């Protein structure tokens, strides 16, 4: 460590003094801290995630967290803390909430897939009423429920520092989504929010209507994830109506919904006039060939702003895929396209193989790779996409980060 050596030495000594040297948790903290050789004005992120499948690691418990935060107050250079996939409960959330109220240097906190519930969510959200340093919070996979989500919605009406909030897979409900949408009509700081997979019993798409109203007035949100909302054509139409008046949203995730070709018609019309959207994720819907034609028409003729389109697993046959490939021939802005999981035929394989062969489509910007057998062209799947590693990141560099999660390259706000 060449920068801030005194601070780092103090941090290491504090860790060693708080427990026996053979304590596996403390040993791991020291090991992870020593991996960071770029302590400077940006600080470091201490990575203590418990999902390393290549090297067994001890998982952080509530007691371990108490030890950790007692020394982080003396390590201002630690600006990020990754505690994903550990064993933290509401007791650990209480410790973290106290730390957030007292700490002024932590900017990134990842608590995804722990065992934090509603009371823990209340404590952490309450701490953010006064915290003025945290910029990015990930609560993904903690079953905080609808009431826990309501605490975060209330926080968004007060906090003016947080820029990225991830509440995906948190079992939030109807009231939470409506309250969050209302909060974001006034909030001017949040740039990215993940609301994937809420628990909704109402199929009237009431939440989508409220989110659409929010988009009409919000002038700060750049990234919005609405996967697994049960959204249908009605909801897509409401969103498109709102986005005609929105000039900030660049990343729209509508994956895993019930969108068919009629809903994509509204998106096609929007793309003809919208000059802001850069990433559109329609994975795991059912747009079929007609929907692909709507998209290809908009992209070929008028849209020159969209950079990424994902239509993975949409029951599109060769005709629709060829239309999308042809649209790329005339649209030089669209640089990434993901099509795996559809009904590839000979013509579609040849069309995308030619895009790659002639340099129109870079191999790292799509999820298919051409190969030949007995002179016939086929496409193989690549581990590329918009969010293939949203929930985990491999320690080995088998896939370049820019290919595994292209959204991080195009919109750093999603990092």
From TrEMBL:
Gene3D superfamilies: Ribonuclease Inhibitor. Coiled coil: none annotated. Pfam families: LRR_6. Transmembrane segments: none annotated. The keyword Repeat applies. InterPro entries: Leu-rich_rpt, LRR-containing_regulator, LRR_dom_sf. Keywords: Repeat. This is LRC34 protein. It comes from Bombycilla garrulus.
């Amino acid at each position: 460590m060449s920068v801030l050596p005194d601070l780092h030495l103090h941090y290491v000594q504090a860790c060693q003094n708080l427990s026996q040297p053979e304590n596996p948790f403390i040993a791991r903290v020291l090991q992870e801290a020593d991996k960071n050789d770029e302590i400077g004005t940006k600080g470091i992120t201490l990575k203590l995630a418990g999902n390393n499948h290549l090297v067994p690691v001890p998982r952080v418990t509530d007691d371990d967290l108490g030890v950790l935060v007692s020394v982080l107050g003396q390590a201002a250079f630690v600006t990020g803390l990754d505690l994903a996939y550990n064993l933290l409960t509401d007791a650990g959330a209480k410790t973290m909430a106290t730390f957030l109220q007292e700490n002024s240097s932590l900017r990134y906190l990842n608590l995804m897939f722990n065992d934090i519930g509603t009371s823990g969510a209340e404590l952490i959200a309450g701490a953010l009423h006064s915290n003025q340093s945290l910029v990015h919070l990930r609560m993904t996979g903690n079953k905080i429920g609808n009431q826990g989500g309501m605490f975060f919605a209330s926080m968004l009406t007060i906090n003016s520092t947080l820029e990225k909030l991830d509440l995906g897979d948190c079992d939030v409900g109807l009231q939470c989504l409506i309250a969050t949408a209302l909060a974001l009509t006034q909030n001017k700081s949040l740039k990215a929010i993940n609301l994937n997979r809420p628990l909704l019993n109402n199929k009237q798409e009431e939440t989508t209507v409220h989110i659409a109203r929010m988009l009409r007035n919000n002038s700060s949100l750049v990234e919005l994830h609405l996967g697994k909302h049960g959204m249908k054509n009605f909801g897509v139409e409401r969103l498109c109506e709102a986005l005609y008046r929105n000039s900030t949203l660049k990343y729209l995730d509508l994956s895993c919904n019930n969108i068919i070709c009629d809903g994509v018609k509204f998106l096609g019309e929007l793309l003809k006039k919208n000059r802001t959207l850069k990433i559109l994720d329609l994975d795991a819907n059912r747009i079929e060939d007609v929907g692909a034609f709507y998209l290809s028409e908009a992209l070929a003729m008028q849209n020159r702003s969209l950079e990424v389109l994902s239509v993975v697993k949409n029951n599109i046959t060769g005709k629709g895929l060829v239309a999308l490939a042809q649209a790329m021939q005339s649209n030089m802005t669209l640089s990434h396209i993901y099509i795996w999981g559809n009904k590839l035929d000979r013509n579609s394989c040849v069309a995308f193989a030619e895009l790659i062969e002639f340099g129109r489509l870079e191999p790292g910007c799509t999820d298919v790779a051409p190969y030949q057998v007995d002179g016939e062209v086929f496409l193989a799947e690549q581990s590329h996409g918009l969010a293939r590693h949203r929930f985990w990141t491999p320690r080995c560099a088998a896939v370049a980060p820019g290919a595994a999660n292209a959204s991080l390259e195009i919109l750093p706000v999603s990092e």
